[in-house]
Amino acid sequence: MREEETALMSACAKKRVLMTVDPDLADMMSAVCAAHREAHERGAGVDELWAQLTELGLVRLTGSEESGGSGAGWVEAAELLCAAAFHGVSAPVAEHDLLACWLLETAGLPIDASRRTACLLDAAGAARGVPWAATSERVVVIWHDGAAHQIADVQSSALSVTPGRNTAGEPRDAVAVDVATLTGTPVPDAVVVQCRLRAALIRAIQVCGALDRILELSVAHAGERIQFGRPLAKFQAVQHLVADIAAEAALARAATEGVLAEAVRTDWTSESLDFLVAVARSCVGHAASVGVRNAHQVHGAIGTTREHRLHEFTLPALAWRSEYGSVQYWDDKLTDHATAAGVDGLWPLVTGTS
C-alpha cells in the first residue's frame, strides 16, 4: 500500500463529528466517554456515568434552560451520541433527552431530575424492545385513545416491565399498562410522527459512530498484524476490504448528516424529512452489513474473541440498525417515496430541487 493511501485510510479512521461543534466541547465529550470506558472495566456502571453527565449538563443537552436543560441543539447531541458509540459506552442519554424529555417539554408537562425513557404503546397498552425501561425511574408513554394521541409521564413501578436485551446486550424491555388508569395529555399526531423520526435518526447517528471505530480498528490491525512476513495492509484483498468499510461509513455519514442538517435548519418541519430519514437509515443499515462483515474478515479469529474490542462496536451496529425500523422497513419506505414521486418527480426528490 502506498504511503498516501495509508495516510488517507488512517485519516478516515479517525473519529469525526457529524457537523461542526465547538472543538473543546467535542473533546470534553470524547474524554468523558473514554474515561468511563476505562472505569467500566474496573466495575463502574451506568449510574456513575449518569452522575458525571448530569454534573456536566449533558443529560438534558437539548432541553431549554427554562425547563432545566442546557439549551444546546441536535448538533451537540449528535456529537455526544457519536462519542459514546465510538468509545463503546452505552447509556440512555438519547432516550432521556431527545425523546422522553422532549415529549414532556412539547406537551408543557413538568420535568424533574428523574431518568427517563419513552415508548409508543399499541392498542393493548404494550410495547416491546423499550430501551432502558427497567432501569429508568419514569417512562413517558404515548398511546391513542381512539380520538387523539395522549402522553403521560409514568413511574416505572406503575408499569409491568419485563427485562430484556438486544443482541448487543443493551436493555430492551417489554412494557405493559392499562391505559384506562392513566391521565394523559393530548398531543398532535405530528408530535408522534416527529418522535418516530427522531428515534430513527438517533440510531443512524449511533451506527455512524460505531462504524468510525470499526474502521479505525481495522486500519490499525491491518497495519500491525504480520502475515507471511509482511503486514496485512500490504495485501490487496485486505486493502479492498478496508477501503469498502471506509466508503460505506462515509456514505452512511453523508446521508445522516443530510437529514440532521435539514432537521436543524427547519426545526423538524421540513416535508422531506421522512424521505431523508429513510435514505439515511437505508444507507446506514447496508453500511453496517459491509462494515461488520469486512472488519471481521480483516481481524480473523481474534476479532471474534471477547478479549478483543471489535465486538463492542460490531454487535451494537447490527442491533441499532434494526431498531425503530428494520433495514427492510426503511428500504421499503424509500421505494414508496420513489414510486410516489414518479418519473418526473424522482430527480427533484433525490436532489432536493423543486
What does this structure look like?
Residues 203-319 form the Acyl-CoA dehydrogenase/oxidase C-terminal domain. The chain is of the alpha+beta class and 354 residues long. It is 56% helix and 11% strand. The protein has 10 helices and 9 strands. It has a 4-stranded mixed sheet with strand order 1-3-4-7. A 3-stranded antiparallel sheet has the order 2-6-5, with no helix packed on it. Strands 8-9 form a two-stranded antiparallel ribbon. Strand 3 and strand 4 form a beta hairpin. Helix 5 (93-107) runs antiparallel to helix 6, helix 6 runs antiparallel to helix 7 (236-266) and helix 6 (189-224) packs parallel to helix 8 (273-299). The protein is globular. Mean pLDDT is 92; it is low at 1-17.
Task: Describe the structure using short key phrases.
3-stranded antiparallel sheet, alpha+beta, AcylCoA_DH/ox_N_sf, 354 residues, single chain, 4-stranded mixed sheet, disordered N terminus
What is the rounded distance between the termini?
Answer: 45 Å
Across the major sheet, the strand order is: 1-3-4-7
Low-confidence stretches: 1-17
Give the number of DSSP strands: 9
Largest sheet: 4 strands, mixed
Mean pLDDT: 92
Q: What structural category do the secondary elements indicate? A: alpha+beta
Q: How helical, in percent, are the residues?
A: 55-70%
**Secondary-structure element order, as H and E?**
HHHHHEEEEEEEHEEHHHH
Radius of gyration equals 21 Å
Strand content bin: 5-15%
Number of contiguous helices = 10
Looking at the structure, what is the overall shape? Answer: globular
